[in-house]
Inverse folding.
């Protein structure tokens, strides 16, 4: 039942918890070299601090629909925040790498539930006509936290130990946990349902296998047995999982929500955008640091104005959504995204730092007009009892599409770089006069570095061009968006009619 006055105090507590959880997800990436040095571990081992975190998210987020329906908001959030706080504390004092890795897994088990829970509370607490503004505020958490993470992390690592990353988060997490114990109440309705253990196993293998396989492809290559093996196993488990859910009266994750056209369309657009969004997050640090030699902290600062713009625009976009709907905002935002992505495909070795900042900021401005309005429009069409499934589905698919997008873009960049490097090397060899004296070792090294830089730039340019095409696909899809008519307004107020219509929609 929607409340007349939304519980703003409760939502604020959930906001803080979700913010530190998402911030923590991106904080550690910059610190991985420092951790490798301190614990004397190899890159393949240290990468599990990020990969393991993502895998736990991929396993638990699909199950969040069950948890949200089965347990009260207060119990669920306190459990999630308690696990996150415990994991943060263990990470800050970890004496060996194994303890740090276990701490990250515990953190992830808590943070995985926070985002779906917060989204579900927002959908329940606010009427449809005010959801845009509410979800716009939620967008600050979803968008700004991961964008600020690398910049903040870069500055902290330059001045302190990696443990400061956890020491910074710990008191905020602890305060949020204490506030939750005394202030939280229940908003979403509960019902007595049982967890299908076999579904949970299939979901874990399916989503976990896909996430691990695609995330490892950029490092190990598509031909590695661990990569294609986990993808194949994950895909088979996922197919069995989906078929099982469609046959269940009370599924762990309701796939029949894709029968609602605006939800299906919004999900498709969001996933395509997630793939395009990752291109700049992956490619920009490579270009700025590896090719241009700009420091990590300046690389992070380059992306900061874009994060600030997204944070400012998120609530504004939410209010515009309530007034004009998602279609207009999505078309404008995706047009900006397509144009700026194309300009990124034209950057050179001489492109100025200020030009990169402006271009990246405009790209984030475009993105800010798309993600939350499109997602909210899709969720608005779902019946209230399907809100937990809608939020769980969106969060899960964005994790998977982000992993797939990253893997594909890294592969495209590496392949293009290798081809261009061979071309440039052949040209350089044929241009050398056989009668001339051999270049010195220093000159040869400089030439090799120049070839590598030009080849890598070609790879980055080509990958941004692919990203432009991906964003253009989302733009075409956005043309078909219609303002979602809320379920309660579509049906008769007669309860028997409601039950009959819902049964017909899901059969």
């Amino acid at each position: 039942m929607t409340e007349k006055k939304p519980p703003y105090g409760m939502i604020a507590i959930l906001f803080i918890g979700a913010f530190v959880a998402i911030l923590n997800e991106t904080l550690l990436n910059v610190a991985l070299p420092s951790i490798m040095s301190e614990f004397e571990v190899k890159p393949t081992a240290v990468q599990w601090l990020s990969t393991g975190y993502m895998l736990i998210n991929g396993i638990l987020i699909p199950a969040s629909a069950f948890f949200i329906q089965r347990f009260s908001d207060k119990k669920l959030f306190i459990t999630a925040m308690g696990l996150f706080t415990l994991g943060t504390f263990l990470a800050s004092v970890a004496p060996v790498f194994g303890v740090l890795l276990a701490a990250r897994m515990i953190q992830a088990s808590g943070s995985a539930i926070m985002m779906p829970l917060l989204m579900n509370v927002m959908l329940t607490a606010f009427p449809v006509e005010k959801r845009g503004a509410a979800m716009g505020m939620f967008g600050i958490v979803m968008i700004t936290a991961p964008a600020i993470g690398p910049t903040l992390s870069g500055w902290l690592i330059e001045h302190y130990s990696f443990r400061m990353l956890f020491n910074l988060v710990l008191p905020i997490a602890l305060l949020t946990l204490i506030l939750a114990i005394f202030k939280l109440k229940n908003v979403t309705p509960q019902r007595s349902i049982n967890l299908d253990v076999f579904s949970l196993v299939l979901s874990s293998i399916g989503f976990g296998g896909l996430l691990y396989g695609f995330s490892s492809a950029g490092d190990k290559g598509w031909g590695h047995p661990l990569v294609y093996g986990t993808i194949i196993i994950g895909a088979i488990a996922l197919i069995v999982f989906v078929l099982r859910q469609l046959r269940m009266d009370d599924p762990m994750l309701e796939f029949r929500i894709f029968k609602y056209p605006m939800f299906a369309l919004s999900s498709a657009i969001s996933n395509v955008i997630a793939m395009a969004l990752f291109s700049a997050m992956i490619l920009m640090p490579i270009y700025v640091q590896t090719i241009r030699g700009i420091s990590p902290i300046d690389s992070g600062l380059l992306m900061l104005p874009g994060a600030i713009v997204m944070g400012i625009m998120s609530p504004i976009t939410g209010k515009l959504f309530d007034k004009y709907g998602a279609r207009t905002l999505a078309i404008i935002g995706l047009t900006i995204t397509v144009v700026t992505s194309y300009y990124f495909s034209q950057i050179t070795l001489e492109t100025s730092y200020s030009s990169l900042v402006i271009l990246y900021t405009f790209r984030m401005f475009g993105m800010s007009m798309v993600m939350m309005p499109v997602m909210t429009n899709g969720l608005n069409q779902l019946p209230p009892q399907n809100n937990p499934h809608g939020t769980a589905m969106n969060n899960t698919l964005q994790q998977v599409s982000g992993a797939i997008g990253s893997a594909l873009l890294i592969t495209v960049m590496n392949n293009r770089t290798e081809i261009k490097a061979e071309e440039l090397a052949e040209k350089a060899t044929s241009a050398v006069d056989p009668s001339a004296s051999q270049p010195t070792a220093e000159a040869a090294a400089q030439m090799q570095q120049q070839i590598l830089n030009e080849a890598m730039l070609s790879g980055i340019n080509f990958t941004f061009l692919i990203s432009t095409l991906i964003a253009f696909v989302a733009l075409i899809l956005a043309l078909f968006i219609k303002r979602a008519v809320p379920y309660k307004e579509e049906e008769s107020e007669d309860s028997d009619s409601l039950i009959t219509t819902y049964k017909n929609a899901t059969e």
Q: What stands out?
A: The two ends are 25 Å apart (CA to CA). The CA atoms of residues 108 and 392 lie 16 Å apart.
